[in-house]
Design goal:
The chain is of the alpha+beta class. The protein has 9 helices and 18 strands. The strands form 5 sheets. The protein has a 6-stranded antiparallel β-sheet, with helices on both faces. It has a 4-stranded antiparallel β-sheet with strand order 5-4-3-6, with no helix packed on it. Strands 2-11-10 form a 3-stranded antiparallel β-sheet, with no helix packed on it. A hairpin with a 5-residue loop joins strand 4 and strand 5.
Length: 376
């Protein structure tokens, strides 16, 4: 089927195979998820020494653990002896060490080999050399970000730089003090769609008037089709009669202490490529982390973060959570509706972007540059 000629209003998308081809997905695993900074776990989820969580980063399972000094460390979830997976559980707590269930090689929480059966009879073994493979780790916004690359890219340029690019400066996001907020709710979504469909959906609001009635009631300008992140520094204003970022526009909670009057009653959205969305509103922060597991499956973990006194008081956050939970369900449903068509001959050459979606082509250009692919 020949491609349809484009007009100046229309820009071509990626071809359908970009969303269905296992080879494309493997290339993304290697050159994106395993090469860039990846938001792995909320730091506060690991409460004390010995707490750990395992996460899938590209093709690798990674352990993020808190050592005896209370510092976060990250390692590949692989025993150096015969390659058994150390931790099968998604999360847990150990006393002092990580012990392989196969041959009992044992590592401390800094990754050093500290014990193994008959190790004393093998004095030539370099315990440091046979420690766990360390993964680079940085903390920002209250989350542990990991990078599997031997030489990771600049965190300031590629991660913090996304906030600067969107908001105009780093101070604008720092005022929300996300690292000091408390977890009010976490919802995990198992989405049967390619991760790029989710990113593209988040980046545009051409669909908002069609599928997000509750969101458009709170943020009326979204009915015009332009997403807040289309413009640098712009936050979508609350409707005149809207009191808070809630499912019915009713009262939320008190504005976070350092949010400025210019930021009050506005919604800001940030995409931190490749797999993180940050949503800023006056009284809370919503952060999405994507875990792409296959070319047609993406797990999304979404956190709603509030002032500690809100969570500590037992306040009912359900009206606040419900707004973006509905948005998530609506978005993920259309992504799942779109995924099967990516393999259709009708989409072999891809689709099109209308003017309010043209900025998505910048994401496509970035993606192709990073992966060295042609899009198919």
């Amino acid at each position: 089927m020949p491609p349809t000629p484009l007009s100046p209003s229309l820009i071509a998308t990626l071809p359908g195979a970009s969303y269905t081809d296992p080879d494309v997905f493997r290339r993304e695993q290697e050159r994106l998820f395993e090469a860039m900074w990846f938001c792995a776990v909320r730091s506060a989820d690991l409460g004390g020494p010995g707490a750990f969580r395992t996460v899938q980063v590209g093709r690798e399972s990674v352990i993020v653990a808190r050592n005896g000094a209370g510092e976060l460390r990250a390692f590949l979830n692989v025993c150096r002896h015969r390659g058994a997976r150390l931790c099968l559980e998604e999360s847990g707590e150990v006393r002092r060490t990580l012990r392989c269930p196969y041959h009992a090689w044992t590592y401390d929480l800094d990754g050093r080999l500290v014990a193994a059966p008959h190790l004393a009879k093998m004095p030539d073994i370099d315990r440091a050399a046979y420690g766990l493979v360390t993964v680079h780790l940085r903390e920002w916004l209250g989350y542990a970000w990991v990078c599997l690359a031997g030489e990771p890219p600049s965190f300031e340029e590629t991660v913090i730089g996304a906030a600067v690019e969107r908001l105009g400066d780093a101070a604008s996001i720092e005022r929300y003090r996300t690292e000091e907020l408390a977890l009010g709710r976490r919802i995990t979504y198992d989405v049967k769609a390619n991760w790029k469909l989710i990113v593209e959906n988040f980046m545009e609001c051409y669909h908002c008037a069609t599928i997000h009635p509750e969101l458009v009631d709170v943020l009326p300008e979204f009915a015009g089709g332009y997403a807040a992140q289309y413009y640098v520094g712009h936050g979508a204003a609350f409707g005149e009669d809207v009191k808070g970022f809630t499912v019915d526009g009713g009262e939320g909670f008190g504005t976070l202490p350092e949010v400025t009057p210019e930021q009050d009653r506005r919604y800001y959205a940030i995409t931190v490529k490749p797999t993180v969305f940050v949503n800023l509103v006056p009284d809370h922060v919503i952060l999405h982390r994507m875990f792409p597991l296959a070319e047609d499956r993406t797990v999304v973990e979404c956190d709603w973060l509030y002032a500690p006194e809100v969570v500590g008081s037992g306040a009912d956050v359900s009206h606040s959570v419900e707004l973006f939970h509905r948005v998530n369900l609506q978005d993920f449903a259309v992504c799942e509706r779109t995924q099967p068509a990516m393999a259709s001959r009708a989409y072999r050459a891809g689709g099109v972007l209308v003017p309010s979606e043209h900025h998505i082509s910048l994401f496509h250009a970035w993606l192709l540059e990073k992966t060295g692919g042609s899009g198919a």
